[in-house]
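Now for a chain:

_____
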Amino acid sequence: MKHKTFIKNAAIMTITALILRTIGIFFRIYMSNKIGAEGMGLYQLIFSIYVLGSTFATAGISTAVTRMITDELVCGTKKSVLHILRRAMLISVLIGTASMLLIYFLADPISQYWIKDMRAAPALKILCPSLPCMGISSCLRGYFMARRKVSCSSNAQIVEQLVRIGIVMFLIDRFSAMGIAYACAAVMIGDTLAEFASCLYMAIGYFRDRRRLENHPQRPPRLVRGVFRRLMSIAAPITAGRYLNTVLRTIENILVPDKLTDYTGSKTLSLSQFGMLKGMAMPLLFFPSSFLSTLSTLLIPEISEAHTLNKTAKVERMVNHTLHITLTLSILISGIFLLFSREIGMLVYQSEEVGFFMLVLAPLMPAMYVESVVDGILKGMNEQGSSLRYSVLDSIVRIILIFVIVPLRGMEGFLFVMVVSNLLTAGLNIRRLLKVTGVHIQWGQWIFKPGLAMATAGALSMLCTRFLPLQGLPLTCISAALAVIVYAVLLSALGCVTREDLRLIKN
């Protein structure tokens, strides 16, 4: 039953992620057509402040709620579960309200001295009311994750995205006629109302679900003490890491256009390049990672439970299969982007420059995807402190390199910074995971053979499609499909995917 629940939740979250990312890509295409590359660049700067505010409102609390309620569902009572959730929501609302007031009253100074563009101020003030709602939503999301019932939070994400898109599409033509500042404000109105809608949907789902919580009368009454202390012991390292990491990343996002301007001499060009990279190329690169991000999220309660019960063999087995799946899929995705980055850039955004950005970053995709999954595993094993240290180190390195390299080399320099950063964080996180689990990387099965299979599949695909009388999208789709088929066949031939692997996946 537990395996079936895990697979059901994985399917729900994967389908939801695919739907949301597909809608999100089309929405970004729509936005880029409406406000242009410069508008996307300004939006990314505003969004970095939005992420900073949401980090203060939510960081760490969802993971803490998931882990504490998971423990209470195993050993506690219905009363103790609800007590923990209520305390967590109170803490989140207080922090979210403080974040809201802070950003609202500092919107003008932030825009003038930090973003260095007063057009950001109205949008920053509009986003503020969403922050307390985000705190509540974060707690409810952790509750549903602990209950292994992800359909409500997944549906809430879909509702949130649909509300956001509907409002933005209704407002953006009216607002964009008055300038980029008003266009960005329209987007933030959509974001704020979407957060309200998502929170309301999950709250309704929670009130329905809590009636189904088992009372476990056979268990002795359990007095839950020190909820705040326990929440903070889990959330504080995650929260501190995300606070610090988000602050540093916000500094970085604001610093990059500024240093690009030193190189190009044009604020408009710098915002356009920044918007193309962060607002257009990066979402495409992370679009295929829906399954892997789902796996990372679902692993937190599973590994937390196995780690709590000292099931070392189970933890090691889960980590082995997760790394194997992640590397095998990410090498395929990386190869597809390497082969067709220009075509994808032209197809989606009619931009060869976006395609070039994806071409440079495509080889990093296995490192990016693995780092994301490993981060979730480490949190499930109470290794938040390691993530904090690595995030801080990475951000400091990035900022130093941006100061030194970007004014001299422009966007080329920033792409180099991203390469160094992703390799650094992935290496540190993987090293820590291997140390605490005792797992060993199977270089041949996980990396070398899949890499050889992808190189061969790509070469055969490009060779075969040269003889097809097709162009444009049909040729790209056929070439990509052929590469995937050949890759799968070669994986089987090289022994990377065995009958045992297929049996485990089926189970």
